[in-house]
């Protein structure tokens, strides 16, 4: 298994959320190209939209009541896996 | 771990192949919405572009000398994980 962190994005297929899940996966894989080992897209149901690192839920649509902007999701992923990393513009 | 199959797509970041890897991931997750447990996007280097199911390489750009069309990749994934499934138009 790669030693680099695995990020999971579970999305609701009934709600047709694959496209935004895949979009955020590409945003994370672009920003953290060398730091992330993989991003797994996981089909789910019942309104789920969660971004996780292991047991840590980085974003839960149900808890937050909305989807993340790319910037805030990247900040949470950065804080979780590469705390020192600057995100440039999107960090402000 | 989900019991459904995990598909891996490893792509070369130096070659900027994230977009086509993410595209194929979405194609597979749409066609096999209920049969696939996850599709993992895995950044790699050195010209790699491989689609795998466990130890089975379903497509290797190096071996095939090119990228897969969505149709042929879906046929190989179908043959591997859901042999009986019809793919409709794209199966011909």
UniProtKB/TrEMBL annotation, chains A, B:
Matches recorded under SUPFAM superfamilies: Thioredoxin-like (SSF52833)
Q: Which UniProt keywords apply?
A: Redox-active center
Gene3D superfamilies in the record, alphabetically?
Glutaredoxin
Please tell me whether the keyword Ribosomal protein is annotated for this protein: no
Q: Give the transmembrane region(s).
A: none
Protein name (database record): Selenoprotein W-related protein
Can you tell which superkingdom this protein's organism belongs to? Bacteria
């Amino acid at each position: 298994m790669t030693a680099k962190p695995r990020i999971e994005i579970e999305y609701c297929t009934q709600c047709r959320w694959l496209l935004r899940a895949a979009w955020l996966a590409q945003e994370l894989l672009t920003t953290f190209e060398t730091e992330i080992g993989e991003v797994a897209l996981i089909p789910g149901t019942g309104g789920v939209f969660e971004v996780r690192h292991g047991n840590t839920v980085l974003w839960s649509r149900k808890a937050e009541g909305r989807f993340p902007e790319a910037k805030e999701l990247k900040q949470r992923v950065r804080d979780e896996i590469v705390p020192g990393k600057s995100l440039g513009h999107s960090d402000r």
